[in-house]
Design goal:
With 423 residues, the protein is of the alpha+beta class. The chain has 4 domains: 92 residues, Rossmann fold (3-Layer(aba) Sandwich), CATH 3.40.50; 68 residues, ATP-grasp fold, A domain (Dna Ligase, domain 1), CATH 3.30.1490.20; 123 residues, D-amino Acid Aminotransferase, Chain A, domain 1; 96 residues, Phosphoribosylglycinamide synthetase, C-terminal domain (Glycinamide Ribonucleotide Synthetase, Chain A, domain 4, Alpha-Beta Complex). It has 14 helices and 24 strands. Strands 12, 15, 18, 20, 23 and 24 form a 6-stranded antiparallel β-sheet that branches. It is globular.
Length: 423
């Protein structure tokens, strides 16, 4: 088969790394890719959001299957355009991708179908948002309705913070069109987890669990980011919890989307808060998580590609996947200043030394090659991932690899997987 993966981040490197191992693959492309992905696939200089150029490439290369990594092209309808041209693609249609493309859409669907989630309101006018905040008090969560690269969520501890966040989004254009409407919801207590399922429009197949770390600093401090690390499996998601999440959240969502005429196909990522009342849905993502994907792929025993094809073809019902019992930990190395202003172009050394450690894979996110040098080219730059018999050993190995990487212009959190180790 001739395969294209769309995207340039750590998630796409993990997908390329996994798909490249499939005996079904004759040619693997990635658009646009990065310096690490170039070791597993042929990189093509087409932006992930250039829908028409991607469709032309797929048609010209007679591709058999396209795997869309990031949410932007999914919401923009890339899968619809590919399928219209006769190219099979993994991912939801634009209508189904609204589960991530509009937080308000997702919340309304939950409310209509009894899917447990936080109480909320939707607002496009600042006075209405401020009145809701004053009525409900704090802590409270302010979310930009649209896509904001993982940064459009503010957890406000007091009224002033909540009002400032609402003002920044609705009147200050902090997130552009994504913040033209906001969702304001109650703050939920508990432990977060990332839950993934492959969906074929009817059936849903749960994947391994994970837990990620959104805050930039140790001890879950500082602003939210796209993700500073992850580990798998998440102990809080035991077999009983998997059944509960599938019954209360995932299957009702799949049925609701089908009944609405927008059947969901692809991977469905449920961000959960698990508290005393059981799991509640924080958000849906319509693609693999980043950096959760980097933690999941090394644990997958089965060939990923047939599973993705089965989801697209609607034949997941009798499909199964096998996972290693081992644990994995992914530590994200980011450019100094992230998630604020940061510089690109600094050289990263020691990657070969780090990747040579047993069980370690260094996934690239924001990198580019300059001759034989690897340079930073983004905010989140590397996902240093280790697999070992238990989570403590995996974390030790991941940080051992981090310490072999010579990149003074970068930083990482030092406490990834602390919840699992504390248990």
């Amino acid at each position: 088969m001739r395969i294209l993966v769309v995207g340039s981040g750590g998630r796409e490197h993990a997908l390329c790394w996994s798909i490249a191992a499939s005996p079904l693959v004759d040619a693997l492309y990635c658009a646009p890719g990065n310096a690490g992905i170039a070791q597993d696939a042929k990189c093509v200089a087409i932006a992930a959001d250039d829908v028409e150029a991607l469709v032309r490439f797929a048609r010209d290369k007679k591709l058999d299957f396209v795997v869309v990594g990031p949410e932007g092209p999914l919401v923009a309808g890339l899968v619809d355009r590919l399928e219209a041209e006769g190219v099979k693609a993994f991912g939801p249609s634009a209508k189904a991708a609204m589960l991530e493309g509009s937080k308000g859409f997702m919340k309304d669907l939950c409310a209509a179908h009894g899917i447990p989630t936080a109480a909320y309101g939707r607002f496009s006018r600042l006075p209405d948002a401020l009145a809701f905040i004053r009525r409900h008090g704090t802590p409270i969560v302010i979310k930009a309705d649209g896509l904001a690269a993982g940064k459009g969520v503010i957890i406000a501890g007091n009224i002033e913070e909540a009002e400032a966040a609402s003002r920044d989004m609705l009147e200050g254009n902090a997130f552009g069109a994504a913040g033209a409407e906001v969702v304001i919801e109650e703050f939920l207590d508990g432990e977060e987890a990332s839950f993934f399922a492959l969906v074929d429009g009817d059936a849903a197949l749960p994947l391994a669990s994970a837990q990620d770390y959104k805050r930039v600093g140790d001890g879950d401090t500082g602003p939210n980011t796209g993700g500073m690390g992850a580990y798998s499996p998440a102990p809080i998601v035991d077999d009983a919890m998997v059944q509960t999440v599938m019954a209360r959240i995932v299957r009702p969502t799949v049925a609701a989307m089908k009944s609405a005429g927008s059947p969901y196909k692809g991977v469905l990522y449920a961000g959960l808060m698990i508290g005393k009342d059981g799991p509640k849905l924080l958000e849906y993502n319509v693609r693999f998580g980043d950096p959760e994907c980097q933690a999941l792929m090394p644990r997958l025993k089965s060939d990923l590609l047939p599973a993705l094809i089965a989801a697209r073809d609607g034949v997941l019902e009798h499909f199964d996947l096998r996972w290693h019992d081992a644990a994995s930990v992914c530590v994200v190395m980011a450019a100094n200043g992230y998630p604020g202003a940061y510089r690109k172009g600094s050289e990263i050394r020691g990657l070969d030394r780090a990747g040579a450690l047993e069980g370690v894979t260094v996934f690239h996110a924001g990198t580019r090659a300059d001759g034989n040098r690897i340079l930073s080219d983004g905010g989140r730059v590397l996902g240093v991932t280790a697999i070992a018999p238990d989570v403590a050993a995996a974390r030790r190995r991941a940080y051992e690899a981090v310490d072999l990487i010579d990149w003074p212009e970068g930083f990482c959190r030092r406490d990834i997987a602390w919840r699992a180790i504390r248990r």
